[in-house]
Amino acid sequence: MTQKAYNILGISGSLRAASYNTLILRAMGERANNGSALENTEFEQANVQFHLANLKGIPVYDGDL
User: What are the boundaries of each domain within the chain?
Assistant: First the structure.
């Protein structure tokens, strides 16, 4: 049986350095990438890679400007 591969992208909408959302996503990524969060799930035998992104550098859109 071939091993399934999953790429998961977590996007934090906050630009704050101490954002709780970003901290939670980082913790989720660490657990997913080392497999500890995947035990006893259908993803346990899968190749899972978690990637974290943020909105830094993306221009803000405001249709009223």
Answer: 5-54
